[in-house]
């Protein structure tokens, strides 16, 4: 079966407008705040998103009824990569994690009332959100079946108890999508349910901000405590005990949108290195005329082209309604490492300039390194890839 990886004209045009918007409007903000989101504050988010709406590039991924342009996964690949040229580009377009993945999940799973209450204001950029699944050891992490946060029925609803951590964007989020066990025991493959928890619920509290390498995501990475957190029956997202199935609705596409965004930063790093290699002279020639530097530049071009092709292949499968588990794992594992290599080579080519704060390469390096852990460590994906391959071989 042929795989069409080309983009239709309106996607190409939107990607071009996104590229211009990010370079002209977003990059100056990013450079002003050294790529650290907290320095810009909520005022910067509001300002950038208003500018994106004015430019007609805001929320390209959600349905038109919620103010978006309903791009499929392949269309998102072109536009999100251009947004990812800046660390703040995804925020400006409202396609940053975790909100983008939560919008995708809510569109597929939420009831009409839940969409109006949570999805619409989220898609419009009026609020932010978070996704509360990961737990401190020995709870859910790389193995989601280790889920230990529990929800039990109470009159009129559910009581949630448990501790979550590394919850991106929790500080300032209007609501959380919380995964809790409603049947079975930690280690069981089923029995999870998703709940919509408003931030003003007295049973949900932010315990602390984690100190992490990356600082470009709004609301940081937080530890969140659910202690006697009571929610009504209408807070159940989808059906009881189906949370793991819904997680797959979110996680596969979210892994690909991470790949798209970080490819933008890889391209940006490569361009910085190319300019430096073209202008810097030493040992009687341009830096770019040296064979070792040319090899690094070529390897980065190969890494980016391969990562983009793998991502598009997985997106095509998702658009066709396939599970794409193998393709998304392959694309995520490869791209996470490829982006790191590209940024690392760019920093090396730039030498002392790359290590300095005069360009943002050192910030990019800190931002892309956790991608090899987030949304499943590379080793977990390799394990899953091998298991699927072995199952195929023994049929």
From TrEMBL:
Q: Which SUPFAM superfamilies match?
A: Acyl-CoA dehydrogenase C-terminal domain-like, Acyl-CoA dehydrogenase NM domain-like
Residues forming the Acyl-CoA oxidase/dehydrogenase middle domain are 130-227
Sorted alphabetically, which Gene3D superfamilies does this protein's record hold? Acyl-CoA dehydrogenase/oxidase, N-terminal domain, Butyryl-CoA Dehydrogenase, subunit A, domain 2, Butyryl-CoA Dehydrogenase, subunit A, domain 3
The record's InterPro entries line, in alphabetical order, gives: Acyl-CoA_dehydrogenase, Acyl-CoA_Oxase/DH_mid-dom, Acyl-CoA_Oxase/DH_mid-dom_sf, AcylCo_DH-like_C, AcylCo_DH/oxidase_C, AcylCoA_DH/ox_N, AcylCoA_DH/ox_N_sf, AcylCoA_DH/oxidase_NM_dom_sf
Query: What does the record give as cofactor?
Result: FAD
Q: Print the keywords alphabetically.
A: FAD, Flavoprotein, Oxidoreductase
Q: Which residues form the Acyl-CoA dehydrogenase/oxidase C-terminal domain?
A: 241-389
What CDD domains does the record point to? ACAD (cd00567)
The family note in this entry says: Belongs to the acyl-CoA dehydrogenase family.
Q: Which PANTHER family match?
A: ACYL-COA DEHYDROGENASE FAMILY MEMBER 11, MEDIUM-CHAIN SPECIFIC ACYL-COA DEHYDROGENASE, MITOCHONDRIAL-RELATED
- Report the protein name in the record: Acyl-CoA dehydrogenase family protein
This chain's source organism reads: Nonomuraea monospora
């Amino acid at each position: 079966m042929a795989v069409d990886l080309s983009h239709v004209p309106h996607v190409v045009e939107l990607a071009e407008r996104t590229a211009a918007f990010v370079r002209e409007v977003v990059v100056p903000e990013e450079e002003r705040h050294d790529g650290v989101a907290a320095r810009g504050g909520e005022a910067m988010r509001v300002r950038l998103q208003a500018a994106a709406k004015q430019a007609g590039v805001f929320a390209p991924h959600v349905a038109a009824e919620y103010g978006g342009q309903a791009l499929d996964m392949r269309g998102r690949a072109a536009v999100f990569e251009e947004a990812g040229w800046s660390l703040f580009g995804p925020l400006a377009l409202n396609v940053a994690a975790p909100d983008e993945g939560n919008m995708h999940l809510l569109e597929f799973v939420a009831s009409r009332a839940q969409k109006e209450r949570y999805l619409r204001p989220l898609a419009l950029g009026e609020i932010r959100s978070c996704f509360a699944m990961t737990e401190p050891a020995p709870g859910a992490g790389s193995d989601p079946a280790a889920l230990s946060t529990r929800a039990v029925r109470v009159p009129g609803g559910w009581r949630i108890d448990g501790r979550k951590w590394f919850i991106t964007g929790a500080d300032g989020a209007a609501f959380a999508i919380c995964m809790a066990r409603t049947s079975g025991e930690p280690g069981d493959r089923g029995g999870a349910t998703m709940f919509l928890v408003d931030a003003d619920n007295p049973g949900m509290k932010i315990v602390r901000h984690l100190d992490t390498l990356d600082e470009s995501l709004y609301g940081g990475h937080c530890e969140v405590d659910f202690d006697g957190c009571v929610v009504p029956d209408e807070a159940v997202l989808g059906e009881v005990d189906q949370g793991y199935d819904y997680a797959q609705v979110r996680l596969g596409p979210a892994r690909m949108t991470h790949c798209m965004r970080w490819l933008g930063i890889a391209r940006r790093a490569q361009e910085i290195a190319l300019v430096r290699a073209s202008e810097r002279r030493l040992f009687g020639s341009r830096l770019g005329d040296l064979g070792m530097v040319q090899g690094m530049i070529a390897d980065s071009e190969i890494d980016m082209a391969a990562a983009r092709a793998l991502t598009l292949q997985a997106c095509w499968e998702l658009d066709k309604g396939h599970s794409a588990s193998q393709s998304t794992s392959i694309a995520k594992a490869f791209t996470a490492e490829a982006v790191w290599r590209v940024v690392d080579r760019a920093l090396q080519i730039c030498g002392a300039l790359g290590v300095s704060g005069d360009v943002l390469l050192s910030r990019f390096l800190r931002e892309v390194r956790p991608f090899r852990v987030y949304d499943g460590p590379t080793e977990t994906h390799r394990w899953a890839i091998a298991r699927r391959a072995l199952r195929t071989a023994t049929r």
